[in-house]
Structure formats: structure tokens, C-alpha cells
Amino acid sequence: MRAGPADSAAAVTGDSISVACWTAVSRATGVLRFAMVGAVLGPTYFGNTYQFTNSLPNLVFYGFLGGSLFSSLLVPALVRHIDLGDGPASRRLAGGFLGMALLGLAALAPLAVALGPLALRGGQEATGRLLVALFVPQIFCYGLIATSVAVMNAHRRFALAAAAPALENAGILAVLAGYASGVGGVLFLGLGTTGAVGLHAAVQWWGAGRVGVTLVPRAGWRDPEARKLLRRALPSVAQAGLAAGELLILLVLANRIPGGVVAFQLALSFVYVANALGAAPVALSMLPRLARMHLDGDAGRFAATLARGLGLGLFVTVPTAAFYLVLAAPLARVVALGRMGTAAGVTMVALALAALAAAVVGETVFWINTYACYARGDTGAPLRSTVVQVGTSLAVACVGFLVPGPALLVVLGLAYSAGAAAGGTHLARHVRRVTAARPGDILTPGTAGTRLAPGLGRTVAGAVVMAGPAWLTAVLLRGPLGPAGRAVGLVAALAVAVAVFVGTQSLLRSPELAEVAGGMSHLLGRTSRPVAGVRGG
User: Fold this and answer.
1) How far apart are CA 260 and CA 271, in angstroms?
2) pLDDT 10s digit of each residue in the chain, 537 long?
3) CA distances from 400 to 6, 77, 247, 253 (A)
4) Contact status, residue 312 vs residue 14, Cβ threshold 8 Å
5) C-alpha distances in angstroms, 321 versus 4, 52, 285, 316?
6) DSSP state of 436
7) Which residue windows are transmembrane per the record (predicted)?
8) Phi, psi of 91 (to 5 degrees)
9) What DSSP assignment string belongs to 26-84?
10) In whole angstroms, how far apart are CA 244 and each of 29, 67, 189, 309?
11) Which segments of 368-506 are extended strands (E)?
12) Please, are residues 285 and 19 in contact by the beta-carbon 8 Å criterion?
């Protein structure tokens, strides 16, 4: 099937904007959730314990079983059945995939229960064991969530999948508020947190059912197509395992200082927000389209779409990284609340955030190129680049053993950023080499000559120009308005940053700005039309 209007630049950008908007809601509640953890539990070893043990289900699924990478391989496989109108085959393959994922998770869950508490310190081992036992069911929920999201994305349905995590965050915020009010103790905290994840999983399962795929676990190991998918996924599982191991080691090192895990994860949540708004929407919306272009042998359109996607992702994340770097301290003052809102707590978050800012750009390049590889059925190249990423990160992190106090978080942030930059560069060079047009390739008219460098230059120039006015706005408004001035000054600084950046891009006649406008028009036009063959959502 040839790529059609649904694969146009405006359609890709429109879907990216839709994902970004809903993801913004989810990630904003995510940042609020981390801030609430700091406010309620403070810079303490118990705060470290809750945050660390609650991260384990994520690390097990999204890390050691491949998580979103694993499920993203399901999208290209489903696209073929969807284009043929073969609903039973889609349900069989998705159910088989879910069955194999749950089986793998059942094998890994006991390891998390046994080994997780061993990384704790400060007399928190017993509490940690209880929390790990209460959090383990989340692992299976994440398996259902990822499979449901893959099903919806394969049908080009992105909104619900991106918005539903906000329900999980809202649930956990309510649980933390109840804990702070004395409604319950550690048991209430653990059960409530897991219940919120269960609610998120139920909504995603319902969303997959709305596009015609009611997910029921099946014996995928008896299905040749599912087994082929599993073999292809093994490198992505290893890739995610390496990345999870990297994060686990960084968190263990952060646990050397009270509140270090909370502060580092709070700062890391800003990196997740930036990539959720820049890299993930572009990568997700491109994946089914790039898969179709690869199946069609349309090399020119594949390369042009990828170059535009990278430009669009960096158009968002480069200025965001600059904003984080320049305004790390004001951002830390706003999100370090309650017991975390001490001078020490704010300093730790600010130092970690400034050091992590560069990771936003490196991860954008890495993830968009990773999804391009998956669209081609290539899972080996991202694994090799992850080895480069993790090796670089851990080599730099070793310096942390020599650094005392909050400066440790600077070293860990720089280590993460250096790894992201090295891995992203390594993978981008590979993808550029293998997607270069060859004799005999199909070259769709108008797709030749799409280059990334000019657009990246304009984006960097805009980020440099906006940094000064944004910082000055935050500083000038913080004093006169008292404590409330922190948030007001930050919002004003964000508004100034966006205005200056957009104005600069307009003066430079940036094609990326025109693409965003075109995507908005496409999105607004689409929402006023019914979508054939899909029951809303």
C-alpha cells in the first residue's frame, strides 16, 4: 500500500502536536507527582525508599523487558494486518504479544522482590521489602498498558494513549495527599499507588478495545508470527536492559546522600517532559508511516520524513534544554515543595537539572532514530548505540565516588547527558548511512535534498537569543511579588521565551514553524471530520 494523505508532512505534524498536547498534560501531572513526593516525604531516606521501590516496576518492564521499545516493534507488524483489513489477525498477534510479555514479567517479578531492597540503606530495608511487594503487580499493568498503546498507535490513534497516564498521576497525588493527612500509613501508600497504576491500565485496555482489538492474553509462543516478533525484539530487550541498568546505577549512587534519589528523579522528570513533548510525539506519529514507506520501498520519502521529524523534534527540545540550563534554579524553587523546599533540597534539584539539560537534545536524536530503525525492522543498531551510551555514562559516573555532597548530583547529571549525546550521535550516523538513496530506490518527487543542518542552525540561534530575556524576566519578577513571584516569574519567563523564540524563527522564515502551523490546521480540520472505520477516541 502506497503512502497516502494520512502520511503527509501536515498529518505527521498534526498527530505529533496532538500527542504533545496530551502528553504535556500527563507529564505536567508527573512533575507535580514528583514534587508531591518531595513535599510529603522530604529529603529523607524514606523518601529515597518510596521513590526507588516505586521505580522498580518501571525499570523491570520498560527496562529489563524492553517496555516501550518492545511494544513499538508490534506497531509495524500490526500495520500490515490493519492495511489488509484483517481484524482477527490483529487481535491474534496483539494477544499473543501480550501473553508472551506477561510470561516474561512473571519470570522477572521475583527477582525484583528479592534484589530490590538490597540497594537500600539508612535502616529502610524492611519498609523497602513491604513496598516492593505492594508495587510488584504494577509490572503486569505496564505490560497491558504498553500493548494497548501499540494497538492504538498502529491505528493512528494517539490522544487517549498519551493522555491516560495523567489518571495514574492524579491517583498517586490523591494517595500522597491522603498519606500526608494521616488517612493511612505505608500500607495505604503502597496499595493506593498500585491502584492508580491499575486504573491507568484499565483505561488503556478500553482504548484498544475501541479501535477493535479487545486484548486477551494468548499463547503467543505457539504463533509463528508472534515468535518471529519475539526474536526480532530480543535486541531491543537487551537495549532497554542496558538503559535500565544505567539508571539503576545512577540512582544507587544518588542514594549516597539523603534526598539524593528524590532530587535526581525530580530533575530527571524535566528531561522526560521535554522528550515527551518533542521526541516521543514525533517518533510515535512517524513510526507507522515510516513502516509503510519502508514496505513500499520509498527510500526518498522515508529519508525526507525522518529528516523533517528530527528537525521538528529538535525544534522543541533544543530551546527547552536552553531554558532548563539557564533557569534551573528558578525551576527548582517552584517544584521543591514542602519538606523538600529547604535550601539544601532546592540546591540539589537545581544542580541536577542544570547538568541534565544537555541530555534532552541527545535523547531526542537517539529516540527518533531508534524508531526509524524499528520501522526498517532493524533492532541491532539501537542496541549497539546503547552500549556506547551506557559505557560513556558509567565511565563519567565513576567520578561520583570522589565527589561528596550535592556536587555528586552534578556528576551524575553530566554522566547521563554525556551518555545520551554519545549514543545519539552514534545512532544518527548509522541511520544516515543506511538510509542514503541507492540506485534503483524509489524517489518520490519533491523529497530529495531535505537537510537537517540549516534548520538545526536556526533552532540553535533562536534558543541562544531567547535565553537572556527569559532569565532576566524570572529574576526581575521574583523579588517584587514575594513567594508567589517564583511561579509568576517562571510563567512569565516561559511566555517571554516562547515569544522570543517564535519571533526569531519567523524572522528567519523557519520551515519548522510553518510545519507546526500546517500541523495545527490539519489537526483542527480533522477534529471537525468523522474518521472512517474508527469508533471515536
Assistant:
1) 17
2) 444 555 556 666 666 677 777 777 777 787 788 778 878 887 777 877 887 788 778 777 766 665 555 666 788 788 878 878 888 888 999 999 889 888 888 887 777 777 766 666 656 677 888 888 888 889 889 889 989 988 988 887 877 888 888 889 999 999 999 998 888 888 898 899 999 999 999 999 999 999 888 899 988 888 888 888 777 777 777 887 788 788 888 988 888 888 888 889 889 888 888 887 778 778 877 777 788 788 777 788 888 888 888 988 899 899 999 999 999 988 888 887 777 778 888 899 999 999 999 999 999 999 899 989 988 888 889 989 999 999 999 999 988 888 888 889 999 999 999 999 999 999 999 988 887 766 555 555 555 556 778 888 999 999 999 999 998 888 887 665 555 667 778 888 999 999 999 999 999 888 888 877 776 676 666 554 443 333 333
3) 49, 43, 14, 8
4) no
5) 35, 26, 22, 9
6) S
7) 59-81, 93-118, 130-151, 158-180, 186-208, 229-254, 266-288, 309-332, 344-369, 460-481, 487-508
8) -65, -40
9) HHHHHHHHHHHHHHHH-SSHHHHHHHHHHHHHHIIIIIIT-HHHHHHTHHHHHHHHHHT
10) 23, 10, 25, 26
11) none
12) yes
Q: How far from the centroid of its chain's Cα atoms is residue 40's Cα?
A: 25
Cell representation of residue 184:
493511612
215 three-class SS:
coil
Q: At what angle do helices 125-135 and 186-210 cross, to 10 degrees?
A: 20
Three cell numbers at 254?
544518588
In angstroms, the first-to-last Cα distance of the chain is: 25
- DSSP-derived 3-state class of residue 451: coil
Only one residue has cell 535550601, namely 343
The C-alpha atoms of residue 212 and residue 151 are separated, in whole angstroms, by 9
CA 442 – CA 439 distance, rounded (Å): 9
Contact (Cβ atoms closer than 8 angstroms) between residue 70 and residue 192: no
Q: Are 493 and 326 in contact (CB under 8 A)?
A: no
CB 131 within 8 A of CB 53: yes
